[in-house]
Amino acid sequence: xxxxxxxxxxxxxxxxxxxxxxxxxxxxxxxxxxxxxxxxxxxxxxxxxxxxxxxxxxxxxxxxxxxxxxxxxxxxxxxxxxxxxxxxxxxxxxxxxxxxxxxxxxxxxxxxxxxxxxxxxxxxxxxxxxxxxxxxxxxxxxxxxxxxxxxxxxxxxxxxxxxxxxxxxxxxxxxxxxxxxxxxxxxxxxxxxxxxxxxxxxxxxxxxxxxxxxxxxxxxxxxxxxxxxxxxxxxxxxxxxxxxxxxxxxxxxxxxxxxxxxxxxxxxxxxxxxxxxxxxxxxxxxxxxxxxxxxxxxxxxxxxxxxxxxxxxxxxxxxxxxxxxxxxxxxxxxxxxxxxxxxxxxxxxxxxxxxxxxxxxxxxxxxxxxxxxxxxxxx
Length: 379
Ligand code: SF4
Description:
Layout: H1 3-14, H2 26-36, H3 41-54, H4 58-63, H5 66-73, H6 80-95, H7 104-108, H8 115-126, H9 135-145, H10 154-167, H11 173-186, H12 205-209, E1 225-236, E2 239-244, E3 255-256, E4 259-264, H13 277-287, H14 294-303, E5 308-314, E6 318-328, H15 336-339, E7 349-353, H16 367-376
Parallel strand pairs: 1-6
Antiparallel strand pairs: 1-2, 1-4, 2-3, 2-7, 5-6
Helix pairs in contact: 1-11, 2-3, 2-8, 8-11, 9-11, 13-14
The chain binds iron/sulfur cluster.
Iron/sulfur cluster (SF4) binds next to α9 and α12.
């Protein structure tokens, strides 16, 4: 038996019954592959079902507002994935008559679809012989080959791709690619590969040499930058103030409690940093784009603010130590609802109730603040 025979026999017997394995629809496979990036299968399933219910095809996705797409995605994290899919759906509607391209090369032309996703869609939906190499596959193949070079390089990619194409059968390329992903998820896991029950053990060079623990070899990563994120939670009556983040960069186009990144920390210091009273107001003006609040809150800043937290949140290249202060605005003369109703001001800023906070695309990073508000029972 060769690599593919071992792998496919195991896959047919052991594969999990996952919803996206019941379809050959390239759009549906695309949605599942994007959602599964950096996210566990069991987390993805309810989001996958909800997303497809609301956006069952390219047309529904491409004609929805970005706001709605981000809201349906809310809680799954890495929102740039949803934004890129929405942009790709626009491209497909404008350039491809709303149809997914039918082969690997054409899929690569769709903005946001990279080699891995194109390989997965082309092999699973169209039966095309092409590799689909993501982080899991890199790990598995590095062990199978006992590959002693860093896995992130283009040389490694080419080398692995050549091997995978040699192993991949002509008839079931999609099953082969999925089997490799399944092996990475279920057996050849990052920290505890179960070599004793692995179908590839007899052809796995890393295992046969007894040095599986050496692979994958990775380049040294720069340390995550640690920043304190000073956050202002503005309250007025039973509502709280949100503003929209810029369309570029981290957490693009999502709503946020306004704030600033104020300092670099060295370690896991759980203390709340000491901030001068005068400094607070400067930070407030930097964070909150609405200048009309300045006069209303200045006194609170002069008296000093009580900080809450910290809680920690990790991004790919950054670690936030989040601290927050409540800032109360007087209830205006005219009713709030008349000024701005719920999230209608989907412009750049809005006032929402605690309940409505669950309906807007607010990053998971702010979950602790929402929980704090919920615990207090009122805004
Ligand atoms: S034998 Fe071990 S290291 Fe090799 S592929 Fe299987 S689980 Fe991974």
